[in-house]
Amino acid sequence: MSPGGPAIRGAREHARSAKRRALVSLAALALFACASPAVDVASADARGGRPPQDVAPRSASSASPAAESASASAAVTGARVRVLGIAQDGGIPHAACTCPRCQAARELPSRREYVASLGLVLPSRTLLVDATPDLRAQLDMLADVGARGQGAARGGVDRHPVDGVLLTHAHIGHYLGLAFFGFEAIHTSRLTVHASPAMGAFLTKHAPWAQLVALENLALAPIAAGERVALGDDVYVTALSVPHRDEYADTLAYRIEGPRARVLYLPDCDPWARWPADNDPRALFDAVDVALVDGSFYSGDELPGRDLAKIGHPLMTETMELLASRVASGRLRVRFVHLNHSNPALDPASPARRELESRGFAVARTGEELPL
Ligand SMILES: [Zn+2]
Ligand SMILES: [Zn+2]
Ligand SMILES: [Zn+2]
Prior knowledge:
This protein is of the alpha/beta class. The protein has one domain (about 5-55, about 65-370): Ribonuclease Z/Hydroxyacylglutathione hydrolase-like (Metallo-beta-lactamase, Chain A, 4-Layer Sandwich), CATH 3.60.15.10. The protein has twelve helices and 15 strands. β12 (about 290-295), α11 and β13 (about 335) form a beta-alpha-beta unit. One zinc ion (ZN) binds near residues 169, 171, 244 and 268.
């Protein structure tokens, strides 16, 4: 996300519009109820669209059914996941990229996307999943909930903007935002950060992260693969080990279980065929109702000259093959996140997007909410 006021203004507008949206009728909620009869997985646009509201929106005629369902908002109450961004680590516009999609995003801020992240909005606590380079704006997208939503800490820096952070891994889109919790910015006090033991060790040993630990801006709370932790309000998170290029530490996905639904957050992983025999990805999907899953690339075509075998992510086309029967039967809802700027499915009118939606899949929308 390019720096500057529009995104922040948009997020403030979001906070105001989210309150207005809280009045939306339950009839609207029913319109967007989950295809699966087992779980009430409505989605709602709690943020009111992409950052700036003062630019030309995408025309209604070009909006996909999924986009329309998200923009026609519905109030989700109780514990829920709020999508705070859907882009791959480099953001959209991607840093220094002048491809047509990134240029369009510069000219039309409604086409911009924050780096993939979730808010876990519980009745008594608010947590972040991953701390992205877009963290400032993403914290503003949580200003209507938690202590600030109750009116606390107005008129100054809120030193306790969230109650905790869950980190997936040590790639730039997933933890650089931790820096804003440090001395130069928010200066939090013992903010709980759940991370794998290896990720915790990486943060403890290496500057500038080590200073956040030494000054106790952060309080590391290791969560090992397979471990299940209570987050409060009858919501639990389980860390899941997933294969990914792990230069500095290992990679976790999270299964977040609430009274109403189980949600998998798996933004980054190796192609399914490369998963080890003792870690079958299908088992992860069989244990949830909704999956927010790595959608970095649609197909091998979008990266001319690159060897498909060396792409370090499952292609959307492969994921649709893997999960076709689960989605078709209504046992699983899939919403892609972590889209690279090259991914044609970012355009709601693209053949790629139409194809995935015709097969029952969707691209997550920033601001939408999923009940837990
Ligand atoms: Zn990533
Ligand atoms: Zn680009
Ligand atoms: Zn990664």
